[in-house]
Specification:
Keywords: Signal. This protein is low in regular secondary structure. The protein contains one helix and no strands.
Length: about 190
């Protein structure tokens, strides 16, 4: 019941708010018209309705005097003579053409053909075939194979090889070579 009363109160408050706003401003005020600003550029005058004609560039052309042509005289046409029609000949009487198809001959009576298949012979009774596999023979017992590797033999002791390079010999002391060009003598 309390929720119902609260809902009614809220609806009443919303309606009162709308009523107050409508009483305060019953109509929507129109926006103020914008003021006309003075034109920055000078006003343009309207162009003349008919612009002035320009002076003629070329001298005026003078047409030659008119001389009417003499009337054309056609030769007189010969009098029209009606075309001669051939004499009327009546059409021959209609004679129907003989039929193109041969005369009807009745078909011979139907004689059924003998059957092409041979007479029915019953199949022999079913005999199962002997099995294709040989009879079962048990395998021999498993025998492990002998080892393939030879018996272990110890390696001989390691003997180092002699060095392949010759023994170290010291280089002789450096001696400068004599000059190739002879000394300058003035």
């Amino acid at each position: 019941m309390a929720k119902f009363a609260l809902a009614n109160l809220l609806i009443l408050l919303v309606n009162l708010g709308a009523l107050l706003t409508s009483l305060a401003c019953p109509y929507c005020p129109y926006p103020t018209p914008p003021t006309k600003r003075p034109p920055v550029y000078p006003p343009k005058g309207k162009p003349p309705l008919y612009p002035p004609k320009r002076p003629p560039v070329h001298p005026p052309t003078v047409k030659p005097p008119y001389h009417p042509k003499p009337p054309k005289h056609h030769p007189p046409k010969p009098p029209s003579v009606p075309k001669p029609h051939p004499p009327y000949t009546p059409k021959p009487p209609y004679m129907p053409k003989p039929p193109v198809h041969p005369p009807y001959t009745p078909k011979p009576p139907y004689v059924p053909k003998p059957p092409v298949h041979p007479p029915y012979t019953p199949k022999p009774p079913y005999m199962p075939k002997p099995p294709m596999h040989p009879p079962y023979t048990p395998k021999p017992p498993y025998m492990p194979k002998p080892p393939v590797h030879p018996p272990y033999t110890p390696k001989p002791p390691y003997i180092p090889k002699p060095p392949v390079n010759p023994p170290y010999t010291p280089k002789p002391p450096f001696e400068p070579k004599p000059p190739v060009n002879p000394p300058y003598t003035p």
